[in-house]
Predict the 3D structure of the following.
Amino acid sequence: MPTPHTPWRGAWAAALALGTGLAAAAPPDPYGVYSARWAPRLVPLLSEVVAFETVAGNAPAFAAQAQWLQRTAESLGLVYRDQGAVAEIELPGPAGAPVLGLAVHGDVVPVSAAEWSTPPFQAVMKDGVIQARGVADDKGPLVQALLAMKALQDSGWPRTHTIRLLVGSDEETALKDMPSYLTTHAAPDLTLVLDGYFPVVVGEMSNNSLLVEAAPAVRGDTGVRLLQLQAGLARNIIPGAAVATLEVATAALPALRQRIAARPLPPGTRLEFQAEDGALIVSAFGRAAHAGVNAQGGRNALVALATAIAPELPPGSDRDVLTLVQQAGVDVNGTGLGLTEAHPLFGRAVAAPTLLSRQADGSLKLWFTIRSHPALSGEVLTERVQAQLARFNADQGARLRSANRFTSEPQVHDPQSPTVQRLLAAYARGTGKAAAPAIMAGGTYAKHMPNAFAFGMWMPGKPYTGHDADERIEVADLHLGVKVLLEALQDFTGEPAR
Ligand SMILES: [Zn+2]
């Protein structure tokens, strides 16, 4: 066990030993400075930054947000540097000082506004909770980091390091920002990725996508035909809504509707119907959620839709795909894909169908997210999924195919390593209670940077709301996160890294 670490004593004792004459003054109190001067700015700044709809492809929103970042950083006395896909915001240390990195991302996942109870890009405060897309993932941590850096500077804490906040821009989609930045810029000596759980993440599951394709094929007739189908928002979100249009003779429509409505659905999902001349539109609703971090909290509308309508379709590619969705949807641990092993540290894998759409040529494309552990990754995972697909095809007479090779690997940190132990101690000092290190099914920049650790800012024991409809966070948790971050910053930047 490492010795308990109380950073200010060491740093402050060193300052005293240098005869700086500060013995009479109270030691610097960064969190006290934060509470008094900067905490009141947290909600206003977060409300400003969530208003930029930084969903992939919205270039004007990214440009406006970049200007906001520059303006805000400079108004706080921090250095701003636009480095393309990544922006650097810096609290400089002594010349040539080592660099402690803080990494966040400024992009957000899309919203399905109909599922929100408030406008998604407008911060709404109620009962101490702030709600808007990005308040948890990852704009809350962005603002927390900015204000923590400012409070540390204001407090006069003697810094041995430069603190460099890296703000990425496509973490939720291509994830090319940080890797490309690192080809032309040196990585920080140590990076805290503020995009996961407290107290610290020691295992990140692999994050792979599986694409299953079905060329159009019809092997029978039931008098019903799937005309259109659309489900899901993104590969990393459990779909909260899915809709299918079924072609059916008008005379047969009431009976079809009745049969579909009578089928038991997965818990927490429901259907709505709309009858047209010769067509029945079936909409399924569940609850969107982060497909990695909070798959258990989602209610998969695509699985509900497949369960309801697959038995009505004629044998053929459409029915095959929906049957696979139904089978894979029995749980969020990949049982239906053959991913049955549990890992002692990570537990079970996480897998869910997340996107399904009809292509112009009539084929269907079905995406799954698969988050897996070290016992079920790389070639082992690829072979397992291929074998399961082959078995499904043989059973159903289907011809579904996938060309995926899974290359994303899980990341594991030794829970006993000095850095992990110091981060655990920072969390315990900040919150007044110890917590066990976390495992995460979501991937972060930590996997793409050297010597990087996902450190908060989500408090353990509460369902994570990032990627959800009605994404929200308690303001008290945001302040507490700043306190924990300041504990870590005082430790890691107040004396030479060990
Ligand atoms: Zn994130």
